[in-house]
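[STRUCTURE TOKENS]
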Amino acid sequence: MATITKVCRKKGDAYKAVIRLRGSKTFSKTFKLRKHAKAWAERMERDVEASRAYGNAAARTMSLSELIRLYVHNNPKQDKSGLSNLNWWKREYGEMKVVEIDRSLVRTALNRLKEEDATHGNGEGKRKSGGHKQSHSTVNRYKSALSSFFEYGREHYDLPENPCRQVKAFPEGKGRVRFLSESERKALLRACRKSDWPRLYLLVLMAITTGARQGELLRLRWRDIRLKEKRAYIEHTKNGEPRVLPLVEGVFTELKELPRPIDHEELVFPSERTPGA
């Protein structure tokens, strides 16, 4: 509810508009003319979310770097593959206040990012140029990362809006479906045989012969393997439906040669660093 009060000053009378919102601090603004004070109060009352952001001290002063820090702290299990996206936003716009970032700035940032050279890891903890520009799908992931930060801010710090919602994603191609040739398949399996991880060959062979996703295979436990039936059972898939994987002769032979643990809850493909994970 807004009230407008006349303020007597030596320099001349002024008009103070005061707005009180449930759950927010009272805030105000002073104008020389009563009509300006009234117009401001009416505009702010029409947009409750903007009023709340104006009255929320944390939202007014928080930088993008601080918002990202809070988001990361409260989402410790986030996908580590998105760290480069996170760091880019911090590096380029981290010092800006989040309430100053609008759709125009987001659109400009994404268009600039689209013109940057794509990079990838060099195996030594550093990144090098890939010799081409960022793909539309990559730029869209950067937009999704920023959108996640704003959604977190809206929920916890009363940010007025998420500007990413007002910016269209870049169109993405359907990609190219390609199958390994017979010679490529054999070369891949030979290389897997030479791996330091003895179960890589079986993992790749199962992926090729069943079409299962990497995550589905890595979550397989011995209780899911039915050697007599030559099948493996996946209880939880991406679409929520259980799935049965046929075990071809090569996979069946490899599984038979592996030592069967006493505890059938153990993973078929345990991590060497964290075996129980």
